[in-house]
Amino acid sequence: MLEDLRKQIVAAYPRLTEGEQRVAQYVVDHLPAVAMMSAEEVGQEVGLSDSTVIRFAVALGYPGYAALQREIRQRFRQAFPLATLQQQVAYPEATDPLTTSAHREIQGILATVQTIAPGDFQQAVRLLSQARRVFTLGMRSSYPLAAFAALQLCQVRPGVSTIAPTMGDHWDQLADLSHDDALLTISFSRYSRFTYQLLCYAEKRRCQRVVITDSLVAPVARHATVVLAVQAVEGATAHVPALVLLNTLIVSVARVDPQRSMATMNRIDQILTEERAFQNTEGLIQRVGRPSEDHEGGDHQRTH
After folding, report:
1. Is residue 274 exposed (0-12), middle (13-18) or buried (19+ Cβ within 10 Å)?
2. Domain made up of 112-256: CATH architecture
3. Which CATH class is domain 2-90?
């Protein structure tokens, strides 16, 4: 599987030279493209010589870059038996920006599905389901995803909260963090130092750490209990695949304990109903769609 190859590269990462590590990160994040690129082209992408790319392949145990590329192509054929490599890296022809963008996001979602190992996904579900408390963490553009994850998770299990970047009470929230808790961290390039700092603290407290990021060799990935790496194709961000992944995680957590999930949802729904949390639009629709008799009568009188 492609995921096995990625894990092989990640395992070798600490013993690679600095230049080889740059090649490793590019290969891990761009496997479909690397399957069709020469060593020289990969080197140009990372600003290094093709000899560094070849040494990287040798460091992984291959005779050279060509052997590594053959391995990548073979694994793609196994993962995508009905598609060509060209279809994995090329976008369908489109004349309008919306269609082009949609195709890119779809490619990122499909690549993410192929990247994440089922065992890693199930481990993440188990940790988020069994934890005493779940905290979600994400800074800058990752914060809306973290807030969404907390909002949805609290519908299916108790004890969920978001670490807000502007409140300044994060150390207070995490003061009694323990191995019974879980931290769901979302971090994409450029990686937030604040997120990294809190994740390292959670690791020291032996808290379970589910990390959603865009590379298996990202700084946050090295401090995770389990890493779920989403894929973004050129011209798109990782946020759409991450949102799809979060939705699937939350549904899977709900299915672990259906009785608890239903009880939590019913309790929240009852509170929202009693407190009239949502605006009732029935009357508004009736007024807009069908004028009242008084209104009609008033208009009739004014026309005379």
Report:
1. exposed
2. 3-Layer(aba) Sandwich (3.40)
3. mainly alpha
Phi, psi of 132 (to 5 degrees): -60, -45
Question: Model pTM?
Answer: 0.68
Q: What is the pLDDT tens value at each position of the chain, 304 positions in all?
A: 667 888 888 889 999 999 999 999 888 888 777 877 889 889 988 899 999 999 999 999 999 999 998 888 887 766 654 444 444 445 545 567 787 778 788 888 888 887 788 889 999 999 999 999 999 999 988 999 999 999 999 999 999 999 887 766 777 888 888 999 999 999 998 888 889 999 999 999 999 999 999 888 888 988 999 999 898 776 677 888 899 999 999 999 999 998 998 988 888 888 888 878 777 655 544 554 555 444 444 454 444 4
DSSP bridge partners of 162: 136
C-beta neighbour count of 304 within 10 angstroms? 4
Partners of 161 in the beta sheet? 135
Task: Judge whether 2-90 and 112-256 match in fold.
Answer: no
Report the alpha-carbon distance of residue 161 to residue 220 in Å, rounded: 20
DSSP-derived letter for residue 257 is S
Distance CA 39, CA 48 (A): 10
Give the helix/strand (H/E) hosting 134.
Answer: strand 134-137
- Say if residues 248 and 222 touch (Cβ distance below 8 Å): no
Report the distance separating Cα 160 and Cα 46, nearest Å.
41
Domain boundaries of the chain, sorted by first residue? 2-90, 112-256
For the chain, the distance separating the N- and C-terminal CA atoms, rounded to the nearest angstrom, is 81
Instruction: Give φ, ψ of 9 to 5 degrees.
Output: -70, -45
